[in-house]
Amino acid sequence: MLRYWKTEREGGMKALLIAGKALTLSFWLVFGAALVKWVGPPFEQLIHLLAAFLLVLHGVQLWLFADTLTGRSNPWLDRLQVLLFGIFHLYPLKPTVAAAAEASAAAEEAAHA
C-alpha cells in the first residue's frame, strides 16, 4: 500500500512539473509574440518586464544550483533549460545528484576501509 501511494505521489509531482514547464514555455512563446509586435502597447511593456524579471530569477537559480549541474552529462543543455524553465527543470535533478553523491561517498569510505 505504501509503495502504491509513493508512486501515485511521484506521478502527481511529475504531472505538476510537466504542467509547469508547459506554462513556462507558453509564456516564452507570448514573449516571442511581443518581440515581433503581435501584442498591443500596454501589454507589450508588461510582458517585456515580466520576461526580464523571469530571466533574472532563473539566472539566480542557475547561480545557486550551479554545483547540481556540474556532474551532469550535458551541463550546458541543463543550464539552458534552467534559464527557460527554472525550478521546473531543477527539481527532478536534486535527488539524482544527492544519490550519486551518497554512492561516491560510500565508495570512498569502502576504499579507505
From TrEMBL:
Pfam family, one: DUF1145
KW Transmembrane helix (keyword) present: yes
Keyword Transmembrane: yes
Transmembrane segments: 12-34, 46-66
Species name: Ectopseudomonas hydrolytica
The name this protein goes by in its record: DUF1145 domain-containing protein
PANTHER family given in the database record: INNER MEMBRANE PROTEIN (PTHR38775:SF1), INNER MEMBRANE PROTEIN-RELATED (PTHR38775)
Keywords: Membrane, Transmembrane, Transmembrane helix
Coiled coil (residue ranges): none
Domain of life: Bacteria
